[in-house]
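**User:** Everyone, produce a chain:

**Assistant:**
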Amino acid sequence: MDALLTLDTDGATTGRTLQFPSLRAPDGGNEIAVERLPFTIRVVRHEQQLRKAVDIRQRAYGRHVPALGEMLREPEANDRNPGCVVLLAESRLDGEPLGTMRIQTNRHRPLALESSVELPDWLSDRSLAEATRLGVTEGRIGRMVKTMLFKAFYQYCLTADIEWMVIGARSPLDRMYQALLFQDVFPGQGYIPLMHAGNLPHRVLAFELETAEARWRAAKHPLLDLFVNTSHPDIERSSRLPAFGPSALRREAAVALAA
């Protein structure tokens, strides 16, 4: 199998990891490579995990946007709201939090970025998912975690029958999504202040799930095998809100406040 590639913000691919044996698909078709990661990516299910996610989120934002980082020291309402899940990447060695991302669908309420922009007609009446609060640790492992969090987001959307992934990305992170073949939602408008991101200018981008694999193949994208032909058992793959998801997090928070 190919070495694992990680995507930098300028679209360049870097990094290598150990190679693992391939397993043949049950139907006798293409080989599916199985690769273990030095970390896990799981849906947050209890308050302790959420606190880990908030910690790595705050530290990551604090490095790049200190004022916003100060506002993210505590969990936000959307961390516990229906239609939202928080992903947490943790080191398999010692459980250290390495990265996080929050995913919100539009099945219960409009996306967070819709408080700042009105989405165009071609995204109306579509099932959408927005990734927010992406934060990773520094260094090479952080770049790998960032790439695999995107794969977790992609897999979540596939299994949840989401039609379009939507994100707001500040510079230079927008180049990472552009390299993944996201398209501008508002061509020619540049960067737009987003209320849920401290009114910082962001570029609004979208990605169609149905045509994703075909477009990656046509572009001979370097991450095609990683996203499509490689199984990562360390990434939880589920479109369902966990049994101990937002409702349990709300209960734990209420107990903590009452104590």
The chain has one domain: 21-249. The mean pLDDT is 83.
